[in-house]
Specification:
The protein has 422 residues and is an alpha+beta fold. The chain contains 13 helices and 25 strands. The structure holds adenosine monophosphate and glycine.
């Protein structure tokens, strides 16, 4: 099979790395890919915004399956365009990708099909939103409806903060059209976890659970980032909880969408809050998580390309998916200034010293035969070991072998998981 991975970040590097091991993959492409992905795939420089160009290239090249990493091309309809050309695409069509692309859509679907999530109201009128905030009180959460690169959520500790967020989104348009509609919702309390699932339209096979670390500093302090590290499985997600999420969240969402005439096919990512009342949805994503993928895929036994192709054909079976009895920890190394900004061009040393770990490149470029920083999140260093404790230790041992100026690394990735195991 000829497979093309769409995207060029750490998640896509992990997808390409795993697909390259697949016995059913004869050749692997990455659009646009990255210098690091070129080690496992043929990179083709078509911008992600050129949906027709990507479809035409894949059609001409005889690509058997596209695997789409990022959300933006999915919410813009890349899968629909490719499917019209007869191409198999792992990733939801435009209608199904609204689960991530529109918070109002996702919340309304959850309400209709009784999926546990924070109580909410949606607004197109700022004054009505503010009245609701006064009535509910703080803490309260304000979310822009559309995509905002993970920045469209304000968890307001005071009413004033929430009112300011409404103005920022609806009057100052800091997220552009994404903030034309907003959701105001209950602030949930608990520990967060991610459960990703393979979905073929009907059959749902959950992956191993994971936990992200969204804040920049240790102890979950400081501003939100794309994610500073992840580990899998997450002990907070007991096997019973995974079952509960499957039956009360994933199943009603996929079936609910189908009764609305929408087939969800690809990876469905449930961002969860494990509250005193059980697991509730924080958000859905229509794609693999970054950096969850860099922790989850190294634990997958089985043929990722076969699983993904089965999703595209509606022939997914639970026994295609199995997991190593081990743990994985991925520690992100970010560049100076992240998340407010990023620093490009810092030389990365020590990559050749890495032992028993995978290094997935999130934001690097090649310059004069060396890798240099080229984004906010730069590298994800993943170790797999029999226990979480060992996986964490091995990941950090390898992080210490790598260096670039201004590097930012959290020192407590996985610590919450260890607490559960004590
Ligand atoms: P999102 O972009 O929807 O993942 O939200 C970013 C972060 O905001 C989440 O990872 C949570 O930590 C937090 N968050 C979002 N919604 C809520 C909520 N209803 N209650 C508490 N925290 C939330
Ligand atoms: N790790 C969070 C996300 O991928 O959205």
């Amino acid at each position: 099979m000829k497979v093309a991975v769409i995207g060029g970040g750490g998640r896509e590097h992990a997808l390409a790395w795993k697909l390259a091991q697949s016995p059913t993959v004869d050749s692997l492409y990455a659009i646009p890919g990255s210098a690091a992905m070129a080690e496992v795939a043929t990179c083709v420089n078509i911008p992600l915004s050129d949906l027709d160009g990507i479809a035409a290239y894949c059609k001409n090249e005889g690509i058997d399956m596209l695997v789409v990493g990022p959300e933006v091309p999915l919410t813009e309809g890349l899968a629909d365009i490719c499917q019209k050309q007869g191409l198999a695409v792992f990733g939801p069509n435009k209608a199904a990708a609204q689960m991530e692309g529109s918070k109002v859509f996702a919340k309304n679907l959850m309400k209709k099909y009784h999926v546990p999530t924070a109580a909410y109201e949606s607004f197109t009128d700022g004054e009505a939103a503010k009245a609701y905030i006064h009535q509910q009180g703080a803490p309260i959460v304000v979310k822009a409806d559309g995509l905002a690169a993970g920045k469209g959520v304000v968890v307001a500790q005071t009413e004033q903060e929430a009112l300011d967020a409404v103005d920022a989104m609806m009057k100052d348009h800091i997220f552009g059209a994404s903030g034309g509609r907003i959701v105001v919702e209950e602030c949930m309390v608990g520990e967060e976890a991610s459960l990703l699932a393979f979905v073929d339209g009907k059959t749902i096979v959950p992956m191993i659970s994971a936990q992200d670390h969204k804040r920049i500093f240790d102890g979950d302090k400081g501003p939100n980032t794309g994610g500073m590290g992840a580990y899998a499985p997450a002990p907070v997600m007991t096997p019973e909880l995974v079952k509960t999420v499957e039956t009360t969240i994933l199943r009603p969402v996929v079936d609910g969408l189908r009764s609305e005439g929408i087939t969800y096919q690809g990876c469905l990512y449930a961002g969860l809050m494990i509250t005193a009342d059980g697991p509730k949805v924080v958000e859905f994503n229509c794609r693999f998580g970054d950096p969850e993928t860099q922790a989850v895929l190294p634990l997958l036994d089985g043929d990722l390309a076969q699983i993904m192709y089965a999703c595209t054909q509606g022939t997914l079976q639970a026994d295609m998916v199995s997991w190593k009895q081990a743990s994985a920890c991925c520690v992100i190394m970010a560049s100076a200034g992240y998340p407010a900004s990023s620093h490009k061009g810092d030389v990365i040393t020590g990559l050749d010293q890495v032992q028993d770990a995978m290094v997935f490149h999130s934001g690097t470029a090649e310059k004069d035969g060396q890798y240099v920083t080229n984004g906010g999140r730069v590298l994800g260093v993943t170790a797999v070991a029999p226990t979480l404790k060992e996986a964490i230790a091995e990941a950090y041992q390898n992080v210490q072998r790598i260096h670039f100026d201004g590097q930012q690394v959290r020192s407590d990735i996985g610590a919450k998981g260890l607490k559960h195991l004590q």
